[in-house]
Write a structure and sequence with these properties.
With 1021 residues, the chain is mostly helical. The chain is built from 44 helices and 16 strands. This is Tetratricopeptide repeat protein.
Length: 1021
Amino acid sequence: MLGFRFRPILAWCVAFWRKPPGEVSPVRTRFEFGILGSTIVHPHGNPLVQADVPRKFRQVLAALLAQPNRRLSFAQLVEWVWTEDEQPPADRKTTGHTYRHRISRLLADAGAVGRLSTVNGGLRVDTDESQIDYYVFRNLLSQARNCRDEKDHECAVDLAEEALGLWRDQPLLDLDTSPARNWRQAVLAEEWLPANLFLLDEQIALGRFDAALARHGEISRRHGFDPRLIRRQLRILHSLSRHSEATDTYLASYRKLRGDGQDAEAQELRHFHDELQRRFESGHPAEPVRIVAGPRLLPPDVAGFIGRADLLRMLDEHTGVAAGRLRASVVVLAGIGGIGKTTLAVRWARRASNRLSAGVLFADLHGFSQLRRLEPGDVVDDFLAQLGYPVEHIVGPAGRAEKLRALLEAGPKLIVLDNVQNSAHVRALLPLFGDCAVVITSRHRLTELAVRHGIPSWTVGPLGAAHGIELLSDRIGARASEVPETLRVLVELCHGLPLALTLVAERIASRPAVPVPALVTQLRDSELLLAIGQDGDSPDGSLNAVFSLSYQALSVEAGRLFRLLGLHPGAEFGVGVAAALAGEGLPATRQHLDELVGAQLMEQAGDVDRFRVHDLVLAFAAGLADGDPEADQAVSRMLDFYLGTALDAHRVAFPHIGLPPVPAEIRGMTIAGNEEADAWYLRERSNLGAIIHSAWIGRTRYGWALPHVAARFMDRFGFYADLVSALTVTAEMLAAQRNPEAVASTLNDLGFFQLTLGDTEPAARNFERALKILAEVDAPTGILTVRINLAATERKRGDRAAATAIYRECLTMARAQGDVVREAKVEHYLGETAAEERRYDVAVGHFERALELREALADTAGQVSTLAERCQIAGARGQYRVADEFAARASVLLATVQDVSAAIRLHTVVAELNLSRRRYADAVESAGLALQLTKQTGLSAAEASALDLLGRAYAAAGEPEQARAVWLLAADIFRRRGRQWQADRLTRRVESLPAAPPIPGARPADITQPGVSLDETPDLL
């Protein structure tokens, strides 16, 4: 079996170097993981039963070692390790941790050079591949081929024998699942057999015919009948003057091939034997004798082919290559231009041809090309020429087509039809191919073939980060090791597109004097990246040229939509905004989007009405849209759609809060309910942010309304940094537009969130500026709102008396204006201020009035906040049953609305309540939930307070090390925010904790960090 080798010695898995028969030499120790099954090979050949290593642990490790340095998800491990008859563990997380800890301990105890880690819920073995015998085998064989190329056959034989000496029995013998069997079958067929054939050829080249015959017999016993082996056997037997035996072998093999219906292979074997016999009879046996299995006029293979293992395996299985016999089949490889479809098809055809000794017919149909498109008749003529039949000897197109059909029926081939434009382009060809295996590449999915004939279409997608980095490293060479951190950046810039990666690598390689980081900075310009390849040395091979061919093949309507989508700020969008950009109805837009999906210029993003464009394709579309006479109107329609939908979502999610004034004709998508409103905002968050930060937002007098409406959702989900950034941009834009009320509203909202983030003085300045503007335009509601926020500013400064005085003035103003929303807020804030001064009876009166008003308003989030404060007061008074009732009511309401501030406050209050009741486990849980929410908001002060609370809960629960870890994290946050006294207080707490031995393997970052109060903060205008 092919095992997996590690150094130094593992106490539980040791094997030995095999010595050639009859050779006496010192034993060299080779160390392998025990994935041989139930036994491990001892240096002296004695099997050792590994009773202390459970079989499943060995199997998991074997699966991981088959793919080192690569993450395997739990689902993938289950497929590799658990057979259909075995029930996989239900608790994936616990099982994953169990296996990681157990195997890691075994590796550590054995001193193995490797590390097992958990990555995104999966497992990965990180190790040098040179420690695994499979990769040592591949490296040795690569060196052997280099020796062969240099005519050093002795060296080639030695290295090939050493490589094949690593094999013992079947690889991964302990695993009997479909992925393991497929891996084993592929490795045996694609690597073990070719390596043995290579060694046979090198032994023949050296004239070692006896050794070659012995090895041939061993290979035949293990692999079975194979025409490639028979041809070499005939050569060896004739070379040993065993001509009669060679003839008998040939006749038996010929009859078997004919009996199995492999007429083409039988004919090839006959030609080979006749030529071989002729050469020996003429006295020139040393001349090379080989028979070509048919035409193999493929484009050059790409050196250092990267990735695509899953697609290669799928092609092998679909075409019968995996089973060792060609199957009549057709499959389409679809993908965007430059994604590597042709490279994949050529790589597969070369491998499959070698494995089956089958001929390959290849044709580039120029479906997306500046060259003339090849029609079916052209392809027929080309294939006949490749098969060696002069076209001029066959009369008429129909006659030539029939001749090709007859030839392929007699000897099926692998056929690659590259660069096909659409289904009609190849419809007339497919009936001619009979039992051939046909692979089609196209930028379209060829839906007609799929629907009418059931032909599968597989999408070739971008390379992952690891494969992209590998491709760049191979092409750049030594310079890659100088700047490893930039390779991932380059892969991200190229978005995994192989053509882009190749062009970038060539640019770097051709400019050795320019530092790679400088080139990376340059390549951040998408226009430059799209233009690379226009060097005048050859036809334009740039991404611009590649994408242009796909664009030119679109219908006029789909091309127009694609061009206008270049105006969209993000790569993902819904069908509604696409319709708005085009100014068309939804049915027509869906039809055009379907065409763009079929052309591989975009894909559906997990939702029937959601689409995603490759970033580089979007950049190309943006270039087309630049200067388009429709651009201004399309952008206006897009802004109207987003604003109209945001307004509708606002009406549903915040029915008690008024909307900014905008024209009545603004329309967008209709939002059905609160849950849909939240989902819409989260889905469009990045697009809304891009619009708010773009120059577009200032194009209309009502553009400022979008950030204000979005601000409500940003507040609900705690995206405060987004809010401050968006409102700062909006305030600058409105000041230039001379829109005083809008400027005041924006300044108030900006101050509100600055106050939330703890930036008190900038917030106060913005409130004063807003108040001054509103006084000039006589806006009583706006003045009331800003005054409420000024009171909150005084509370933040610690002046509760001043805050209370302003709140009372605001309460009078709210009642006079009939503003029930702000009346409820002020009552709540007065209650909070009184509670801070421990005037609980006064506080309860304010909270009761606030709750009554908020219930009438159906303000769910507001009710949660007020009930949380009632819970806190009841707990402070020792009225725990009452406190529980308030907490339960708040929890029920919280489940119906997503409001981060209210949720943080409730969990904080409940944690404090549990601490006072000595329910420490419950306190830890509630504090943890609060901490998780503060992390979502990005509010470092709230996070530090939550950590402080969690630390107190851990300390009270008798877990000093956990308390120590979270308090140190909180102290660090306070210190970075300039609150040294709070940091010092926490440091003293840490020093007062009892000393305890450290928890094995525990780190602060590993601790679940759930804490703490955001006061119900000021009011948005």
